[in-house]
Amino acid sequence: MKTLSLTGSPARIVLAAVLMMIGLGVTAGPASAAAPAPATVAAGYAHTCAIRTDASLWCWGSNASGQIGDGTAVNRTTPVRVGAATWAGIDAGTSYTCAVRTDGTLWCWGSNTRGQLGDGSTVKRTAPVQVGTATTWASVSAGDSHTCGVRTDGTLWCWGFNRLGQLGDGAVVYVQTTPLRVGTAATWASVTTGFAHTCATRTDGTLWCWGDSSSGQLGTGTPSYQTTPTQIGTATSWAGVTAGYTFTCATRTDGTLWCWGDNGYGQLGVTGSYQAAPIQVGAVTTWTGVRAGFDTACATRTDGSLWCWGNNATGQIGDGTTTHRYAPTRVGTATTWTSNAATGYHNCVIRTDGGLWCWGNNANAQLGDGTTTQRTAPQLVTFPA
């Protein structure tokens, strides 16, 4: 559900070379723990995973469906390493996880009731299982029960639940247990999955969405679902897009921020009811990236500041309160936040010194601090040496 990118777009990671670039970008200062700092972070409903700069993968929190990937169904209160492989990119769905290895292969694990793991079955997996045999995966986005990924040749593939056309195939299949190519275009740059909708950008800067639009989350101007990719407006300046539960946010190359869809908690960053077409969030033109979660969004600016808004019932805004926010609210005073973030009922963001900070819901130890205490302000995650 959460996109993974320094620009808020999930498909900018191109295997090991880009992993190293990201690593350099977030370790400008000394690491806050003895072990290497995380390079990429992903958050599901109640679990968290992070790839460190040595390309190792670590997960923690809820594990009832095996979404941590350590071969068990035991919750973990602190980070545990997932195997010995090296990883390049990751995303966490509601109760499952998918990740790309440095060799371009794709692996998924956890809940699989709708075939969202892409291994040809609907069997739960407690350890990573390979998706097909392709070695050209560039990125992956995990939603509630459907998954999409972009390959290095610019093709787009989706699988899992398709009741509302979220796989983009015209709703021909109801459940797809292996990757299904979306159309014939080979110019896809990024993809992001929400609860039952999908959005993606192309290399020409256009934005496309499909699937459920009952709350206007597709941005087409009407609350009607689409079963194939539908262009949103005519703009060719979309830089990155992120799909939340039933809303969507995106940035443009001019630094503006736009959101649309459900607004019950203020997750669009504006007051009022749902929006069926993109609406600009304020007048700021210095946004560098945005991440949408279940009913909360967070974004960074060029000055390194972090801002969150929307649902704050578990303190996921990070402002020390549990008050919902209908406009971007600054998180502390730090100016060292990167756009490498994960947003949900708990949020995690990496700082430029390599430190990973998490806050919000912690009922399943998803904050990785060894407790189940809710946090309303960022807390540093310590990794084993």
TrEMBL record:
InterPro entries on file: Ran_GTPase-activating (IPR051553), RCC1/BLIP-II (IPR009091), Reg_chr_condens (IPR000408)
Pfam families attached to this UniProt entry: RCC1, RCC1_2
Signal peptide coordinates: 1-33
SUPFAM superfamilies named among the record's database cross-references: RCC1/BLIP-II
Alphabetic keyword roster: Signal
Protein name, UniProt field: Chromosome condensation regulator
